[in-house]
Amino acid sequence: MANTLPKLIPTFLILFTIFSSFSALATAKKSHLFSRTLTPSKLGLKREKLSHLHFYFHDIVSGRNATAVRVAEAAMTNTSLTGFGAVVMMDDPLTVRPQLSSKQVGRAQGIYASASQNEFGFLMILNFAFMEGKYNGSNLSVLGRNSVFSAVREMPIVGGSGLFRFARGYAHATTHTFDLKSGDAVVEYNVYVFHY
Question: In 3D, which of 93, 57, 95 has the Cα closest to residue 189?
Answer without folding.
Answer: 57
